[in-house]
Amino acid sequence: MNDAKALLDRFLGQVQGAGSATSTPMSDAGGTLGTLRQAAGQLDLQGLLKGKGGFMAGSAAGGLAGLLLGGKKPRKLAGTALKLGGAALIGGLAYKAWRDWQANKAPATAPAAAATLPSPEGTAFLPHSSAEQDDLSVVLLRAMIAAAKADGHIDERERARIAAQLDGLELDPDQKAFIEAELAQPLDVGAVASGATTPERAAEIYAASLLAIDPEGAAEKGYLAMLAARMNLDPDLVAHLHANTAEITANGTF
């Protein structure tokens, strides 16, 4: 698929990919997207994304995940670096959970007011080459689309609605065909889990799935439990992934 990395950015509500670390706001149809501040190798996630135009706020804000969720309210971040590429954002989330888990820290029991993600640059959570980042992005996109189908609401009629709206998003034909093909596939948690070629990749797949849906829904809980089991994720690592996702969606709603 052409430029899977850019398509992943669109799924995460981004209108452009990774950029330089600046404090210049970016805007789109959904409102202010936020600013990126980077210091001492840390991604500062405080004070970004105010108002309705939030992370994954829907197709008007460029978030394709919102389109896939239909009438549901997808996650919005209380603070996120939207000038990061989607693979770097998901990688940072999984990397933080991984480090906390390996350090035997207790998962946070309540969302923090803001969260700081470690940069995944130079780690197993973010490949160096563009080609490898594209390959990772395809895996994460499949995970997010599958998660959005977990409650069974994407039937033939819903796929037709999504296809009609995709026509207005100026996607590359190859990208559009990829989304439609993934939507048409029966939900197969084993196929999603097969993308977990390393333990780190498994954590990223789970993190991407968490960002795509409301993990408190009954069907979604069941799907996430099966996914974690198929990828042999340690329950404590899963708890950290949930806790860290809750931190970066602290003031968001479903």
Architecture overview:
By secondary structure, the protein is mostly helical. The chain has one domain. Helix content is 46%, strand content 6%. The protein is built from 10 helices and 5 strands. The chain has helices at 4-11, 64-68, 86-102, 130-148, 156-166, 173-184, 189-193, 199-212, 218-230, 235-248, and strands spanning 26-28, 31-34, 37-39, 42-44, 116-118. The strands form 2 sheets. It has a 3-stranded antiparallel β-sheet. A two-stranded antiparallel sheet has the order 1-2. Helix 3 packs across helix 8, helix 3 packs across helix 10 (235-248) and helix 4 (130-148) crosses helix 8 (199-212). The longest helix has 19 residues, at 130-148. It is globular. The model is unreliable at 15-62 and 78-83 (pLDDT under 50).
Question: Strands, helices and their partners?
Answer:
Layout: H1 4-11, E1 26-28, E2 31-34, E3 37-39, E4 42-44, H2 64-68, H3 86-102, E5 116-118, H4 130-148, H5 156-166, H6 173-184, H7 189-193, H8 199-212, H9 218-230, H10 235-248
Question: Biggest sheet, in brief?
Answer: 3 strands, antiparallel
Unreliable spans are 15-62, 78-83
Number of domains: 1
Our estimate of the beta-strand percent is: 5-15%
Radius of gyration: 17 Å
Major beta sheet, strand line-up: 3-4-5
Question: How do the SSEs run, as a string of H and E?
Answer: HEEEEHHEHHHHHHH
User: Helical segment tally?
Assistant: 10
Distance between the termini: 31 Å
State the secondary-structure class.
mainly alpha
Question: How many strands?
Answer: 5
**Estimated helix fraction:** 40-55%
What is the approximate shape? globular
